[in-house]
Amino acid sequence: MDQIPYSPQTKTPLNFKWLLLMAIRDSRRNRSRLFLFISSIILGIAALVAIYSFENNLKQDIDDQAKTLLGADLVIETNKPVIKDALPLLTGLGSERSEERSFASMILFPKNNGTRLVNIKALEGSYPYYGNIETTPSAAGKSFRLAKQALVDKTLMLQFNAKVGDTVKVGEVLFKIAGILNKAPGQTGFASSVAPTVFIPLKYLEETGLSQKGSRITTNFYYRFTPDINVERLVKRMESRFDKFELDFETIESRKENTGRSFEDLSRFLALVGFIALLLGCIGVASAIHIYIREKISTIAILRCLGASSRQAFIIYLIQIVGIGLVGSVLGAFLGVMVQQILPVVLKDFLPVVITIGISWSAIFQGVFLGVVISVLFALLPLISVRNISPLNTLRLSFEETHFFKDRLKWLVYGLIILFIFLFTLLQVGGWKESISFTAGVVTSFLILTGVSAGLIWLAKRFFPSSWSYLWRQGFANLFRPNNQTLILVVSIGLGTAFICTLFFVQDILISRVTLSSSGNQPNMVLFDIQTSQKDSVSRLTRKMNMPVIQQVPIVTMRLEEVNGKSSSDVKKDRNMRISKQAFEREYRVTYRDSLTVAETITDGKWTGKAEPGKPVFVSLEEGFAERIGVKIGDKMAFNVQGAMIETQIGSFRKVDWQRIQTNFLVIFPTGVLEEAPQFHVLITRFSGNRQSADFQQAIVKNFPNISIIDLGLVLSVLDEILSKIGFVIRFMAAFSIITGLVVLIASVLISKFQRIRESVLLRTLGASRKQILVITAMEYFFLGSMAAFTGIILSLAASWALAKFNFETSFTPNILPVVVLFLIITSLTVMIGLFNSRSILNKPPLEVLRNEG
Amino acid sequence: MKTILNIQNLSKTYQSAGHTLTVLNDINFFVNEGSTLSIVGPSGSGKTTLLGLCAGLDRSSSGIVELNNIRLDHLNEDQRAQVRNQYVGFIFQNFQLLPTLTALENVMVPLELRGSKNSKVRALDLLDKVGLSDRVSHYPAQLSGGEQQRVSLARAFSNSPKILFADEPTGNLDAETSEKVVKLIFDLNKETGTTLVLVTHDLDLASKTQRIIKLKGGLVISDLETVAIPVNQA
Description:
The complex is a heterodimer. By secondary structure, chain A is α+β, with helices and mostly antiparallel strands. Chain A has 26 helices and 21 strands. In chain A, α23 runs antiparallel to α24. The radius of gyration of chain A is 34 Å and the shape is elongated. By secondary structure, chain B is α/β, with parallel strands linked by helices. In chain B, 33% of the residues lie in helices and 29% in strands. Chain B has seven helices and ten strands. Chain B has helices spanning 47-54, 77-87, 103-113, 119-129, 145-158, 175-192, 203-206, and strands at residues 3-16, 19-32, 36-40, 62-67, 70-71, 88-91, 163-167, 195-199, 211-216, 219-225. Chain B has a six-stranded mixed sheet with strand order 6-7-8-3-9-10. A four-stranded antiparallel sheet of chain B has the order 2-1-4-5, covered by helices on one side. In chain B, a hairpin with a 2-residue loop joins β9 and β10.
């Protein structure tokens, strides 16, 4: 016998090989159950691997397709008329050049008199140099430039039932529709539903009459360079000249970065949603392992009795957890690779590039690593109690858990979990503040759900309905009896319900807010780009068509040049200055009038409605805006009004009710200053009924083709479309949480089945019928499901109310019917899963069940 | 003769609902190496608690437990586990085999724990000795009660313990099987020279040991050589 005499100094060697062997041996009869435990994390991992793979593929695709995103090597952009001095610079660049002018305008389909505000792009040259303007028929993308032809966005074609060969009126000119515009370089499906595009040849722009002075036109110059030119270096060298002429530029590299950055944000958001599903699954794992370890007490006690140290016993089960965590994560990763095929379909409206689907090993590795670490972390909570299992349990079974607050290691594990969530978020989001908020949000949600469910359990116990029939009482009492799954199920299903419900409420709040604005006597139509010469005629036409002129205001565009004598470059240089550099970066659309509207109140300073000769021009600023740019009453602001400098002084701050449908302004000038400046006018009116709206729009487009009309009904439908697109993506991701909740439910029901089996068999032995057991089981899951759904709905009501009050600043009246439907669905699902999994107890003779499960 | 187990002023108390419950009170005895001893007494007399303390499964409230000259009351749980693995063998009333391990693997565990290289050979030899060489690959659930206890016996002797503790080893067995198992325990004990400490209700079984300690209400009320104890007093 190889025997080492005992010495208190020598520790039992760990003997990892044996521990591994024991872990495998011990798992023999439990593998299917262990798999059941870990099944809860599979979906979370799948979601993350799918998103990581998608992100990696997208990055690669953006890199590969960057040229087609921009369609050129360099784009120079300006939203002002190009000044003469800049022309040599603009015409001297590149081997090929195209020009595009874009602006918002109304179009008219003469076939059915349909009108709509669109984004007109007047194009000249061979742009795009990389990629194509995708059209049906495909040749139309190039050939439309040769004649008076247009390419019309596919959503418009559908909306107005237009066909290739029909005509469309842009301004004064009728264009033949040469093709349906499916996709322009870098354009997303999302963008086309917000602002559908119509391409026309640039040479006919003048003829349309839409490029008048004061029109808000953006001009893009697209350049192609010979391969030997380093465009990046070139633009760096010319940056100061571009700045001088107020020209913005974009290269393939900068577009790549910008596109990558915006999609990084999207995939980070989606990854966080997936992470919540994973966390939910991990809670399921922790709960399942807790029960598993309870069942393993006698095994652990025997091992301890035979001389295994607490460390060895702990490691045996840790190995099992790592093993199943690995299996679960690998399966999750496999599923994630499958789900990845669906993601581009789900996100197609948001994507500017064609996504290739390839296996991303780094995504798989990330997902598997994350799965193992997080399942071990959560399993550690019940696992550390293995240390405290006494060998004395071989003589008499007593499982005394160390009091929660006394076990420091448990606190350490909780700390590690929170730290892990924080670090994961930090890696995803990058910002400390956001990561702390997300971690705090997750912890708070779990705490609230745990608190609410613990409270409900307490209430069930405290106000136990003793007058109910035995079957109901038995089912109800199962909620708080030992080994109950109430807490974990209420937390997981509750969180899933809360998620879906909040999503629904938020969508409802946004839609109802816009609906509210467009209802009653609120204005519902805005006309802009009205030239001064057209102002009176438009008002007359409006009144003639029995529509009120609710508001008509002049708008002058300008830029801020100086604040208290300091220019943008001075502010950029001096970091201590309170003025924000953002104040100089925007284009100001201001109005002038002698009085305030009902939506405005002065909060500081004195309102001046009329400029007096020899005195400063007192302007009024919106108080929030003033705070953002860091100015105070008395500060001097110098504005550049299309070449002319106007010195002003801040006379007052205003509070503005932005909820009203009317023109509101950040800066208001007094009368007597801007009357002669280039300007356009906005008219606000109200139509009643679609017929009146259509007639009015047609009349405006026919008589004043340069005027653009915003129909709030259309805005509402576009908003609805956008929200449903975003909602679909979020619902898709939320589905991972919901299904995880259901998997946790199935696993918990199966685990609790092992707990309850003897009891049910005993009841059957004592003479309970199959039906009676069925009622008891159904009751238990009914209470459980309804409790979970109720908790989730309460949480989402609170969250939605807070969002409505603090974020959207609107009132919140929940739509009850869908909530009731959701409640019923979740409750029924819980009951069905509960009954389905308990069927073996119901259908088989008691002895057979005991023999099989024993 | 060398003392293998030395118990001095041993007491065990529990706190229960604010009251102190004394299960064992000032127990004193010693056991010589190679001898056999029974602890008998009515239910609740503290027999199993005493066995647990002697084998280092539990800590005493006061007093000394010295096993093979090692003070167990000075050791922590992991150190006591090491002592158990080196010097102690166990047989339990409900066999306490690991349900997911085969008969052979169950017997190998104490040897594997100490890193023995030829654990399989030794385990097969022991299973052969207890007459189970044809059942080595069976799981506990596939064995009868008597077979399970024989596996348990093989496991108890696998690490060549200096002392074997048996808690009601025939408590779950029928008379015929009990007889066979008892014969095996005493035969193996004789062959290996192991000290045997038995806790039992069965006075016939107790009378087979050289000495009987009788407990009542946590106190030793008699400690006699078997020849001197009248059967009807137990």
